[in-house]
Amino acid sequence: MTTGGAWEQHAAAVERLRASYAAIPRSAPVRLAKKTSNLFRPRAATTAPGLDVSGLTGVIEVDATARTAEVQGMCTYEDLVDATLPHGLIPLVVPQLRTITLGGAVTGLGIESTSFRNGLPHESVLEMDVFTGAGAVVTARPGPDGEHSDLFDTFPNSYGSLGYATRLRIALEPVPSYVALRHVRLDDTGALAKTIAEIVETGSFEGTRVDGLDGVAFAPGEYYLTLATWTDVPVSTGSTDGVGATVGPSDYTGHEIYYRSIRERAAGSGTDLLTMYDYLWRWDTDWFWCSGAFGVQHPVVRRLWPRRYRRSDVYHKLVGLDRRLGIADRLDRRAGRPLRERVIQDVEVPVERLGEFLDWFDQEVGMRPVWLCPLVSRRDWPTYPLAPGATYVNVGFWGTVHVGPDAPNGPRNRAIEERVHELGGHKSLYSEAFYDPDTFDQLYDGANLAAVKQAYDPDDRLTSLYDKAVKRR
Question: Is 0.70 topped by the overall pTM?
Answer without folding.
Answer: yes
